[in-house]
């Protein structure tokens, strides 16, 4: 049985704000609150996958210190734009 959209959004928002490092808690929490509700299922699938990435890697990608993998580039750019880097 598929996870209901409301439950999925709640789970993803919780995972966004309970990361390993405080910086990523703040960055992903802000992005999740601003964008998740409007995302379609494919975008939510991509974001759900991104939540499995290592926080240190995510922080370097979002802050522009390292180049993200090609399959995450669009999402990382959207997160960076949300926090004002992009």
Automatic annotation (TrEMBL):
Source organism, top-level taxon: Bacteria
Matching Gene3D superfamilies: Flavinator of succinate dehydrogenase
Any one Gene Ontology BP term: tricarboxylic acid cycle
Keywords: Chaperone
Pfam families in alphabetical order: Sdh5 (PF03937)
Record-stated family: Belongs to the SdhE FAD assembly factor family.
PANTHER family the record matches: PROTEIN EMI5 HOMOLOG, MITOCHONDRIAL, SUCCINATE DEHYDROGENASE ASSEMBLY FACTOR 2, MITOCHONDRIAL
UniProt-recorded name of the protein: FAD assembly factor SdhE
